[in-house]
Specification:
The chain is mainly α. The chain is built from 6 helices and no strands.
Length: about 110
């Protein structure tokens, strides 16, 4: 019963986010939140679509790099994950966001070494 309730609330959140996105389709926060909901639902294709939408619309939206990289790792696309981590490290370094840079670097090193 608890699992069904969890799925119900997850689907409800997804539907609410989609409604918000109708008014602001390029809102990176909303797209990122929706992608994370799909990650929880283990719908990697849908999650990837929203993460990639963020990167194409706003490559400086830092949070996307880590989560997309992890998704790519999970589906076995390690070369693509490495590329995403590298791009994210470039973006965060240029923005002087050393906290995010460190997280991306750790994910990158865990995968590469």
């Amino acid at each position: 019963m608890a699992a069904l309730l969890f799925l119900y609330h997850m689907n409800e959140r997804i539907e609410k986010l989609k409604i918000f996105l109708k008014d602001s389709p390029d809102d990176c926060f909303l797209n990122h939140a929706l992608a994370l909901e799909y990650v929880k639902k283990e719908d990697d294709m849908a999650a990837r679509q929203y993460f990639e939408k963020n990167l194409s619309h706003d490559p400086s939206y830092v949070a996307t790099y880590y989560h997309l990289g992890k998704l790519l790792e999970r589906i076995g696309a390690n070369d693509q994950a490495i590329s995403i981590y590298e791009k994210g490290m470039q973006i965060t370094k240029a923005a002087n966001d050393m906290h995010s840079y460190s997280e991306l670097q750790a994910a990158y090193e865990d995968l590469v070494y």
